[in-house]
UniProtKB/TrEMBL annotation:
It holds the Pfam family LytTR. The modification 4-aspartylphosphate is found at D53. InterPro entries: CheY-like_superfamily (IPR011006), LytR-like (IPR046947), LytTR_DNA-bd_dom (IPR007492), Sig_transdc_resp-reg_receiver (IPR001789). Residues 137-242 form the HTH LytTR-type domain. The keyword Cytoplasm does not apply. Residues 2-114 form the Response regulatory domain. PROSITE patterns: HTH_LYTTR, RESPONSE_REGULATORY. GO terms for molecular function: DNA binding. Keywords: DNA-binding, Phosphoprotein. This is LytTR family transcriptional regulator DNA-binding domain-containing protein. It comes from Aquirufa regiilacus.
Length: 242
């Protein structure tokens, strides 16, 4: 698996590279000292994992993730600050590792990464992995269960390692990443609007121009307003144009 390290401290990058030598299947293919450098590297190299510092000159790791709408691999935060852990999982990070990084703790992160990769391979190689609008899925959240047809699901929202499904008046959480869910859904019906949302195209009630060349759609039913990122707006227009 290919990795990129983003950290403004050269000694921190060197130490992480040294620790990663204990995992021969992880190859560090590039380094960046800030998020501007990271942006260009991601587009050209498309790694499997990004080791990302939070406090850096210019944009912080969080600010960059919130504004970035390009290719994004699994993200493992590496930071000296423990107060950002909850926010890290809200932006769908795979893990959050405190500095100074210990080998045992890094090993746990690599195991999570391996499990995620295995899950994605199993999903993508399954002969029946694409689910259409007429397919039914079983959903369990706590003590409540639903057997719901996918054409009733108007919105999927990433909540860290979970996805919240919006159908009827229900909003259950399922233990699945938004990326993994996207691979199971019919792209003719379900569209990835941004890093956090997948929308059911059949529920779009209104489309408006939005900031920085993006779009905002309003969904029928409960009237959720979802931003389509600038990059995805291009795909959206191509998909729905004659």
């Amino acid at each position: 698996m290919k990795a990129i390290i983003v950290d403004d401290e050269r000694l921190a990058r060197n130490e992480l590279k040294r620790l990663l030598e204990n995992f021969p299947h992880i190859e560090v293919i590039a380094e960046a000292s800030n998020t501007d450098e990271a942006s260009s590297l991601l587009e050209t190299l498309q790694p499997d994992v990004l080791f990302l510092d939070i406090q850096m000159p210019g944009k912080t790791g969080f600010e960059w993730l919130e504004s970035w709408d390009g290719f994004l691999p699994e993200v493992i935060f590496t930071t000296a600050f423990d107060e950002y852990a909850l926010k890290a999982f809200e932006v769908n990070a795979l893990d959050y590792v405190l500095k100074p990084i210990e080998l045992a703790r890094l090993s746990e992160s690599i195991q999570k990464l391996e499990k995620r990769q295995i899950q994605q391979v199993r999903t993508s190689t399954s002969p029946n992995h694409v689910l259409g609008a007429q397919d039914q899925i079983f959903v369990k959240d706590g003590e409540r269960c639903w057997f719901v047809r996918l054409d009733r699901v108007r919105l999927c929202e990433s909540m860290g390692n979970y996805v919240r499904l919006f159908f009827d008046d229900q909003k259950p959480l399922v233990l699945k990443s938004l990326n993994a869910l996207e691979e199971r859904l019919d792209p003719k019906v379900f569209f990835r609007a941004n890093r956090k949302h997948i929308i059911n195209l059949n529920y779009i009630d209104k489309i408006e121009p939005w900031f920085s060349g993006g779009l905002q759609v309003t969904l029928s039913g409960k009237g959720e307003k979802i931003e389509i990122s600038r990059r995805q707006s291009i795909r959206f227009k191509e998909l729905l144009s004659l």
